[in-house]
Structure formats: structure tokens, C-alpha cells
Write a structure and sequence with these properties.
Layout lengths: L3 H8 L1 H6 L3 H4 L13 E4 L2 E6 L15 E6 L5 E5 L6 E4 L5 E5 L6 E9 L2 E8 L2 E3 L5 E3 L3 E6 L4 E5 L18 E4 L5 E4 L6 E5 L5 E6 L16 E4 L7 E6 L4 E5 L5 E6 L3 E3 L3 E3 L2 E9 L13 E5 L5 E3 L8 E2 L2 E2 L13 E6 L5 E5 L8 E5 L1
Antiparallel strand pairs: 1-2, 2-30, 3-4, 4-5, 5-6, 7-8, 8-11, 9-10, 11-12, 13-14, 14-15, 15-16, 17-18, 18-19, 19-20, 21-23, 22-23, 23-24, 24-25, 26-27, 28-29, 29-30
């Protein structure tokens, strides 16, 4: 299993990160925006790159990893990271910092948003990975926290073994949530036991599915890193789950029955992000031409159409289909990105890219052209 710990160990990043604290390590090698005005992508989904979009100060707003971003009802862009000086950063679309809060989530990883009674709420996921005071990576049980947009905690969801759902030897290190049409909360335990756990809107357990021990392997998930509700068929919404180690998405009914898979060969995809008829995803890293995972500084963005066919790979090579089968996709020359962890799409169809393990860089804006 390719875990975050093993990836850091295998690439030597654990040593590198342990040599510098998060605040001291912050530097933006793209501050000169040397990719400015470069156009990436394919077909009708092409973008101008702005790596200096975020107008933040290294002294007041240091970053560690930029994990995920969502847009609220006012059009503000809300980013979650794992630097406990400012877990949450809130930007306008020009990149100006409007607000920041959150100091309690060293494993800040997953972020989703929902509207209830005209008010926006956040579901924040702390995956459990953290660096101790010596800079060494450790793992602990994760948690899911519901807050308002000012950081007021509504409730938290802890380890499922406390309510008898998990066995004592099953880890809980969640990575993502999705909110269903009736308010149900779906938690992806992507760094733990690979289940999707369904709760009602008050955080009460309903069921869980996925995991790694099903007789039918299609029902299994391997690094269930992301989860999202697909409303493209308005009369029949479904649940799209990431199985990152298998380089695919798996589609389930809202009550956990497997429907089909979307293969993404060569792409270690993160969470699916639905916008209109399209599905977007960050590719955290990609394979090389021999099919072996590239250990460091790889990844791009991928975009699928309504039929789940890949139509553009900004930062990656153009999609190639043979006999209607997608061929393995590689990162394009030039190393545009480092570990694309999430994307957020605004109303103008611009993309904001959050990167993990990318020298503490801020989100990248891709302006649709």
C-alpha cells in the first residue's frame, strides 16, 4: 500500500521536512511567476497559469501543505492547510487574503461545504498525520469537524470504534467528506481502513461500505482518498469515490451499492470535483512510461466530460484513447505542478490548484482562455 508515510520515506522527504519547521521552511520558488502567460491544457479546456495568485505574506501567513479549497455562497475561496498558524485561509478571486483562522488541525486535509437554512457550513477533516516538535512525522486518529464560516464548532465525528463500528485494530484516518442531498455526511477513511462511512446530518452513524476485504474486488477501495456526490443525473445522484492506488474512481449508489468504475491509468487521482457537466481532479502524482509511480514532483490536473471521458490534462499530456480505452497519461515536460492535491472551480470556470509537498507554495490559479 502506498501510504503518505511510505511516500515520504521513499523519496527522502521526511528527512528534508524534519530539517525545517513549517514556518521557517516557507518559501515560494514561483514568486517571480515565471510560468505567467503560459497556456496549458487541451481542446476547449485551456488555461493561463498564475503561480503568484495568492497575495499573502510569508511572515504573517506561512503555509505548509495547501490541501483543499471550496467556494462559498459569497464567491470567496476557502483553503484548508495543515499549518496550525492558519489552517483556514479565505481569499477573494483576485487572491487577496480576507480572513484566516484555525490552529487546532495539524492534519488539516479535507474540506467540503454545504448550505443549511441559507447559511454555509464547512466540514473540515484532520487526517491524523502531524509533525511533532522535532519535525518527525507521526500518525494519530483523525477527526471530522463541522464549523460555520467563522470557525465555530458545531460538532465533531471521532473514531468509529467508540460507537462499536470499527474493530480495535482498524485505523481511522479520514481524508474527505461529501454532503448528500438529504444532508447525510459521507466520510472517506482514505488513510485509515478505506471505508466510506455514512452519517446523518447530526453525525449519527448509518452504515459503512468499501474497505479492502470484499469478496468482489470491485467493492474494495485502496486509498479511498476522496468522495463526492454526482448530481449530473438530477433524478439519480450517485457517489463517486476515489480508489487512488488503483488509479480509478468507483461509483456507488447513495446507500453503498457498487455501480461501475472509471479507470484513470497512470493517474493517482485525488477527490473528484463536479462542476456542471464536468468532473475535475488533481493528480497527486503520475506514473512514468514504464508504469512505475514517479516518486517526487509529479502530477497535473485532469478533466472529464459528462460521459466520464478525459478531455484535457492541464500540466499533463493530452489524453489518448485506443478502442475507447484511455491510455496511461504522463506528466507533460516542464514540471508545471508538484502533487496536485485538489482543485476548485469558480463561476468563470477558472481552476484553483492546491498542491501537497510543493515547497510550501500557495494555490495556483488557472484562468480559462
Amino acid at each position: 500500500m502506498i501510504s503518505r508515510r511510505n511516500f515520504l520515506k521513499n523519496t527522502g522527504m521526511a528527512t528534508a521536512l524534519s530539517m525545517a519547521g513549517p514556518a521557517a521552511a516557507f518559501s515560494n520558488p514561483f514568486a517571480n511567476n515565471h510560468f505567467a502567460d503560459e497556456i496549458i491544457g487541451h481542446g476547449e479546456f485551456r488555461y493561463k497559469v498564475d503561480k503568484a495568485w495568492a497575495k499573502i505574506s510569508v511572515n504573517s501567513n506561512p503555509l505548509f501543505n495547501c490541501h483543499e479549497m471550496v467556494q462559498d455562497s459569497k464567491g470567496r475561496l476557502i483553503m484548508l492547510g495543515d499549518h496550525t498558524q492558519n489552517n483556514i485561509l479565505i481569499f477573494d478571486k483576485s487572491g487577496k487574503l480576507l480572513d484566516n483562522w484555525g490552529t487546532a488541525w495539524p492534519g488539516g486535509h479535507g474540506l467540503s461545504i454545504s448550505k443549511e437554512g441559507g447559511e454555509d457550513f464547512l466540514m473540515i477533516v484532520d487526517c491524523g498525520w502531524y509533525q511533532n516538535k522535532s519535525g518527525v512525522w507521526n500518525a494519530q486518529a483523525g477527526q471530522v469537524i463541522k464549523t460555520d464560516l467563522n470557525g465555530r464548532i458545531i460538532f465533531s465525528i471521532g473514531h468509529p470504534k467508540t460507537i462499536g463500528v470499527y474493530k480495535d485494530d482498524e485505523k481511522f484516518m479520514p481524508t474527505e467528506t461529501a454532503i448528500g442531498p438529504n444532508g447525510d455526511i459521507y466520510v472517506a477513511d482514505g488513510y485509515g481502513s478505506d471505508y466510506i462511512i455514512q452519517y446523518n446530518n447530526k453525525g449519527q452513524y448509518i452504515r459503512h461500505f468499501g474497505g479492502r476485504k470484499n469478496a468482489n474486488p470491485d467493492w474494495n477501495l485502496r486509498c479511498a482518498h476522496g468522495v463526492a456526490i454526482d448530481y449530473r443525473n438530477k433524478n439519480n445522484p450517485t457517489l463517486i469515490c476515489t480508489s487512488r492506488e488503483e488509479n480509478c474512481f468507483k461509483v456507488f449508489t447513495l446507500d453503498g451499492k457498487f455501480l461501475h468504475r472509471i479507470d484513470m491509468p497512470g493517474m493517482h487521482v485525488c477527490r473528484p470535483v463536479l462542476d456542471g457537466e464536468n468532473l475535475y481532479a488533481g493528480v497527486c502524482w503520475s506514473n512514468d512510461e514504464a508504469g512505475k509511480m514517479i516518486g517526487g514532483n509529479s502530477g497535473f490536473v485532469t478533466i472529464l466530460d459528462a460521459s466520464n471521458k478525459v478531455i484535457s490534462n492541464p500540466g499533463g499530456n493530452a489524453p489518448v484513447y485506443k478502442n475507447n480505452v484511455l491510455q496511461a497519461t504522463l506528466q507533460a515536460p516542464g514540471q508545471m505542478f508538484q502533487h496536485c492535491h485538489d482543485v476548485c472551480i469558480d463561476e468563470d470556470k477558472n481552476i484553483y490548484v492546491c498542491q501537497w509537498n510543493a515547497n510550501n507554495t500557495s494555490p495556483v490559479k488557472l484562468t480559462r482562455v
